[in-house]
Amino acid sequence: DSGVTQTPKHLITATGQRVTLRCSPRSGDLSVYWYQQSLDQGLQFLIQYYNGEERAKGNILERFSAQQFPDLHSELNLSSLELGDSALYFCASSTGQGGTLAGGIGELFFGEGSRLTVL
Amino acid sequence: AQSVTQLGSHVSVSEGALVLLRCNYSSSVPPYLFWYVQYPNQGLQLLLKYTSAATLVKGINGFEAEFKKSETSFHLTKPSAHMSDAAEYFCAVSALNSNSGYALNFGKGTSLLVTP
């Protein structure tokens, strides 16, 4: 058990709909990362928040958005869903703010993921 | 941009045989490299990490990896495979993304099959 909790574990919805995925980081971790895992693209970094503020952005579509709340849990909002959005969405947390040029990045602790199926 | 390439999407070994999973990196700065393992229906778990201290890094479950700058490689090995090692393995590099933030960039993964 990594200590990172993601809900829901499974979600089935239709094209055009909107869903929200939730992540609770490990106790004490200030950073939350969102990743998308699909068969064709592999693990793609979407976005990172540190203590409520956006810190890094990867290949996140404009239809997707995220936020981190004062209690440090995070939500990933996916809207206008398309078939291609079907994937496993992982949340990860870490203690630090995401590294520096000299310090690199610390260990990420991953949740078990939320599997989204868009029909 | 920093990236990693994993050679071989599927590797099959016999129980007790050497495990070798290949990873090559591309980085314009000294890289921070990681190996993660993903068991079925689970999240990713850190096996080991290289952060420029020792070039030979030992991880959990008997795995180790050697950083070779001349070859830009960070291959994962285990002397003797167990059935329980069957999983998906990911190599990753700490990478600078937009907004000057860092995240891990992962390879496509290698699925390890262990046969009796």
Question: Layout of SSEs?
Answer:
The complex is a heterodimer of chains A (119) and B (116).
Chain A: E1 5-7, E2 10-13, E3 19-24, E4 31-38, E5 42-50, E6 53-57, E7 64-68, E8 74-78, E9 87-94, E10 109-110, E11 114-118
Parallel strand pairs in A: 2-11
Antiparallel strand pairs in A: 1-3, 3-8, 4-5, 4-9, 5-6, 7-8, 9-10, 9-11
Chain B: E1 3-7, E2 10-14, E3 19-26, E4 33-38, E5 44-50, E6 56-58, E7 64-68, E8 73-78, E9 87-96, E10 102-106, E11 110-115
Parallel strand pairs in B: 2-11
Antiparallel strand pairs in B: 1-3, 3-8, 4-5, 4-9, 6-7, 7-8, 9-10, 9-11
Beta percentage of chain B is over 45%
Residue share in helix of chain B:
under 10%
Instruction: State the end-to-end distance of chain A.
Output: 31 Å
The tally of strands of chain A reads 11
The helix-and-strand class of chain B reads: mainly beta
Which pair of chains has the greatest number of interface residues, and how are they split between the two chains? A-B, 28 and 28 residues
CA-based shape of chain B? globular
Low-pLDDT segments of chain B: none
Whole-number average pLDDT of chain B? 90
Give average pLDDT of chain A, whole number. Answer: 90
How many DSSP helices of chain A? Answer: 0
Give structural notes.
The complex is a heterodimer of chains A (119) and B (116). Chain A is mostly beta strands and 119 residues long. Chain A contains no helices and eleven strands. Chain A has strands at residues 5-7, 10-13, 19-24, 31-38, 42-50, 53-57, 64-68, 74-78, 87-94, 109-110, 114-118. In chain A, strands 2, 4, 5, 6, 9, 10 and 11 form a seven-stranded mixed sheet that branches. A four-stranded antiparallel sheet of chain A has the order 1-3-8-7, with no helix packed on it. In chain A, a hairpin with a 5-residue loop joins strand 7 and strand 8. Chain A is globular, with a radius of gyration of 14 Å. The N and C termini of chain A lie far apart (31 Å). With 116 residues, chain B is an all-beta fold. In chain B, strands 2, 4, 5, 9, 10 and 11 form a six-stranded mixed sheet that branches. The model of chain B has no long low-confidence stretch (mean pLDDT 90). Classes of the chains: A mainly beta (119), B mainly beta (116). Chains A and B meet through strand 5, strand 6 and strand 10 of A and strand 5, strand 9 and strand 10 of B.
